Amino acid sequence: MTFGAKSLLLAASLAGSLPLQAQPAPAAKAAAPIDLSGYWVSLITEDWRIRMLTAPKGDYYSIPLNAEGRKVGDTWDFAKDIAAGKQCMSYGAPGIMRVPERLHITWENDNVLKLETDAGKQTRLFSFSAVRPAGQISAAPSMQGISLAQWQSPQLTRSYTSKISAQDPNTPGFPGIGSARTQTPDTRKLGGTLKVVTTNLRPG
Q: Does some domain include residue 14?
Protein backbone atom coordinates (compact mmCIF):
# COMPACT_ATOMS: atom_id res chain seq x y z
CA MET A 1 0.00 0.00 0.00
CA THR A 2 2.87 2.33 0.85
CA PHE A 3 4.55 1.47 -2.46
CA GLY A 4 1.32 2.21 -4.31
CA ALA A 5 0.94 5.57 -2.59
CA LYS A 6 4.53 6.53 -3.45
CA SER A 7 3.96 5.51 -7.06
CA LEU A 8 0.82 7.59 -7.22
CA LEU A 9 2.63 10.58 -5.71
CA LEU A 10 5.52 10.19 -8.17
CA ALA A 11 3.12 9.94 -11.11
CA ALA A 12 1.31 13.07 -9.96
CA SER A 13 4.63 14.93 -9.60
CA LEU A 14 5.76 13.89 -13.07
CA ALA A 15 2.44 14.84 -14.58
CA GLY A 16 2.73 18.27 -13.00
CA SER A 17 6.20 18.76 -14.47
CA LEU A 18 5.34 17.76 -18.05
CA PRO A 19 5.82 20.62 -20.55
CA LEU A 20 2.75 22.24 -21.94
CA GLN A 21 1.75 21.11 -25.40
CA ALA A 22 2.93 23.42 -28.14
CA GLN A 23 0.28 25.63 -29.64
CA PRO A 24 -0.55 24.85 -33.27
CA ALA A 25 1.28 27.00 -35.78
CA PRO A 26 -0.79 29.83 -37.24
CA ALA A 27 -2.16 29.42 -40.74
CA ALA A 28 0.12 30.59 -43.55
CA LYS A 29 -2.15 33.51 -44.38
CA ALA A 30 -2.08 34.80 -40.81
CA ALA A 31 1.68 34.21 -40.48
CA ALA A 32 2.61 35.87 -43.78
CA PRO A 33 5.50 38.33 -43.20
CA ILE A 34 4.62 40.08 -46.48
CA ASP A 35 1.33 40.54 -48.30
CA LEU A 36 1.62 39.27 -51.88
CA SER A 37 -2.08 39.40 -52.71
CA GLY A 38 -3.31 41.72 -55.44
CA TYR A 39 -2.58 42.52 -59.08
CA TRP A 40 1.02 42.71 -60.28
CA VAL A 41 2.64 43.79 -63.56
CA SER A 42 6.12 42.64 -64.54
CA LEU A 43 8.74 45.28 -65.34
CA ILE A 44 11.25 44.00 -67.89
CA THR A 45 14.52 45.59 -66.81
CA GLU A 46 16.95 42.94 -68.06
CA ASP A 47 17.26 40.69 -71.12
CA TRP A 48 14.61 42.84 -72.79
CA ARG A 49 15.09 41.50 -76.32
CA ILE A 50 14.69 37.82 -75.49
CA ARG A 51 11.87 38.37 -73.00
CA MET A 52 9.73 40.82 -74.93
CA LEU A 53 10.06 39.38 -78.44
CA THR A 54 9.41 35.90 -79.75
CA ALA A 55 12.59 34.95 -81.53
CA PRO A 56 12.21 33.76 -85.13
CA LYS A 57 13.41 30.31 -86.07
CA GLY A 58 17.18 30.29 -86.35
CA ASP A 59 17.72 33.12 -83.85
CA TYR A 60 19.90 31.66 -81.10
CA TYR A 61 21.09 34.92 -79.59
CA SER A 62 22.66 34.46 -76.12
CA ILE A 63 22.49 30.65 -76.34
CA PRO A 64 25.96 29.07 -76.72
CA LEU A 65 25.51 26.46 -79.46
CA ASN A 66 27.99 24.56 -81.57
CA ALA A 67 27.30 23.46 -85.14
CA GLU A 68 25.46 20.31 -84.01
CA GLY A 69 23.32 22.34 -81.61
CA ARG A 70 22.30 24.73 -84.37
CA LYS A 71 21.51 21.79 -86.62
CA VAL A 72 19.13 20.36 -83.99
CA GLY A 73 17.60 23.79 -83.41
CA ASP A 74 16.93 24.24 -87.10
CA THR A 75 14.76 21.11 -87.13
CA TRP A 76 12.19 22.75 -84.81
CA ASP A 77 8.73 22.94 -86.35
CA PHE A 78 6.02 24.98 -84.60
CA ALA A 79 3.26 23.15 -86.49
CA LYS A 80 4.48 19.85 -85.04
CA ASP A 81 4.46 21.35 -81.51
CA ILE A 82 0.83 22.42 -81.98
CA ALA A 83 -0.13 18.98 -83.25
CA ALA A 84 1.55 17.38 -80.22
CA GLY A 85 -0.12 19.80 -77.79
CA LYS A 86 3.19 21.43 -76.85
CA GLN A 87 2.43 25.03 -77.85
CA CYS A 88 2.22 26.15 -74.20
CA MET A 89 5.46 24.58 -72.95
CA SER A 90 7.04 28.00 -72.38
CA TYR A 91 4.30 28.79 -69.84
CA GLY A 92 5.43 26.10 -67.39
CA ALA A 93 6.36 27.07 -63.84
CA PRO A 94 10.14 27.35 -64.49
CA GLY A 95 9.67 30.01 -67.20
CA ILE A 96 6.33 31.75 -66.62
CA MET A 97 7.74 34.34 -64.22
CA ARG A 98 10.21 35.58 -66.86
CA VAL A 99 7.68 36.63 -69.47
CA PRO A 100 5.95 40.05 -69.67
CA GLU A 101 2.62 39.56 -67.97
CA ARG A 102 0.08 40.50 -65.33
CA LEU A 103 -0.39 38.36 -62.23
CA HIS A 104 -3.31 38.00 -59.85
CA ILE A 105 -2.38 36.59 -56.44
CA THR A 106 -5.07 35.58 -53.93
CA TRP A 107 -5.53 33.16 -51.04
CA GLU A 108 -7.55 30.13 -52.07
CA ASN A 109 -7.77 29.25 -48.37
CA ASP A 110 -5.74 29.93 -45.23
CA ASN A 111 -2.92 27.62 -46.32
CA VAL A 112 -2.96 27.78 -50.13
CA LEU A 113 -1.79 30.81 -52.12
CA LYS A 114 -3.03 31.02 -55.72
CA LEU A 115 -1.18 32.70 -58.59
CA GLU A 116 -2.97 33.30 -61.91
CA THR A 117 -1.18 34.59 -65.01
CA ASP A 118 -2.63 36.28 -68.07
CA ALA A 119 0.24 34.88 -70.18
CA GLY A 120 -0.81 31.34 -71.03
CA LYS A 121 -3.81 31.54 -68.67
CA GLN A 122 -2.00 29.47 -66.06
CA THR A 123 -2.92 28.83 -62.41
CA ARG A 124 -0.32 27.79 -59.85
CA LEU A 125 -1.09 26.81 -56.26
CA PHE A 126 1.41 27.19 -53.40
CA SER A 127 0.56 24.81 -50.55
CA PHE A 128 1.99 25.61 -47.11
CA SER A 129 1.17 22.14 -45.79
CA ALA A 130 4.16 19.82 -45.40
CA VAL A 131 2.02 16.96 -46.66
CA ARG A 132 0.69 16.79 -50.21
CA PRO A 133 -3.09 16.80 -50.53
CA ALA A 134 -4.36 13.29 -51.24
CA GLY A 135 -5.49 14.25 -54.74
CA GLN A 136 -1.97 15.34 -55.71
CA ILE A 137 -0.06 12.24 -54.65
CA SER A 138 -0.86 10.33 -57.85
CA ALA A 139 -1.43 13.40 -60.03
CA ALA A 140 0.05 13.33 -63.54
CA PRO A 141 2.91 15.77 -64.25
CA SER A 142 1.60 19.18 -65.27
CA MET A 143 2.71 22.61 -66.52
CA GLN A 144 2.65 24.12 -63.03
CA GLY A 145 3.52 21.00 -61.05
CA ILE A 146 3.04 20.73 -57.29
CA SER A 147 4.48 23.59 -55.23
CA LEU A 148 5.17 23.36 -51.49
CA ALA A 149 5.76 26.77 -49.93
CA GLN A 150 7.32 28.09 -46.75
CA TRP A 151 7.62 31.59 -45.29
CA GLN A 152 11.13 32.64 -44.35
CA SER A 153 12.14 35.73 -42.43
CA PRO A 154 15.90 36.31 -42.77
CA GLN A 155 15.56 39.73 -41.16
CA LEU A 156 14.40 38.04 -37.94
CA THR A 157 17.53 35.87 -37.92
CA ARG A 158 19.79 38.85 -38.49
CA SER A 159 18.22 40.78 -35.64
CA TYR A 160 19.04 38.07 -33.12
CA THR A 161 22.62 37.64 -34.32
CA SER A 162 23.35 41.35 -33.77
CA LYS A 163 23.99 42.01 -37.46
CA ILE A 164 21.39 44.70 -37.20
CA SER A 165 21.00 46.58 -33.95
CA ALA A 166 18.02 45.63 -31.84
CA GLN A 167 18.61 48.83 -29.87
CA ASP A 168 18.05 51.01 -32.91
CA PRO A 169 14.52 52.49 -32.68
CA ASN A 170 14.43 52.54 -36.49
CA THR A 171 14.80 48.77 -36.76
CA PRO A 172 11.47 47.67 -38.30
CA GLY A 173 9.35 45.27 -36.31
CA PHE A 174 10.83 45.84 -32.88
CA PRO A 175 8.65 47.24 -30.08
CA GLY A 176 11.10 49.87 -28.84
CA ILE A 177 14.50 50.81 -27.45
CA GLY A 178 15.92 48.57 -24.75
CA SER A 179 13.14 45.99 -24.75
CA ALA A 180 13.72 44.62 -28.25
CA ARG A 181 15.54 41.46 -27.20
CA THR A 182 12.94 40.49 -24.62
CA GLN A 183 9.87 41.01 -26.78
CA THR A 184 8.78 39.15 -29.88
CA PRO A 185 9.32 41.20 -33.05
CA ASP A 186 6.44 41.81 -35.41
CA THR A 187 7.51 39.60 -38.30
CA ARG A 188 5.12 41.37 -40.68
CA LYS A 189 7.20 44.53 -40.27
CA LEU A 190 10.47 42.63 -40.50
CA GLY A 191 9.54 41.40 -43.97
CA GLY A 192 10.53 38.07 -45.41
CA THR A 193 10.66 35.81 -48.41
CA LEU A 194 8.61 32.96 -49.84
CA LYS A 195 10.51 29.73 -50.50
CA VAL A 196 8.84 27.39 -53.00
CA VAL A 197 9.90 23.89 -54.09
CA THR A 198 8.08 22.65 -57.20
CA THR A 199 7.99 19.04 -58.37
CA ASN A 200 5.87 16.88 -60.68
CA LEU A 201 6.51 19.06 -63.73
CA ARG A 202 6.04 17.95 -67.32
CA PRO A 203 9.35 17.39 -69.16
CA GLY A 204 10.65 20.25 -71.25
A: no
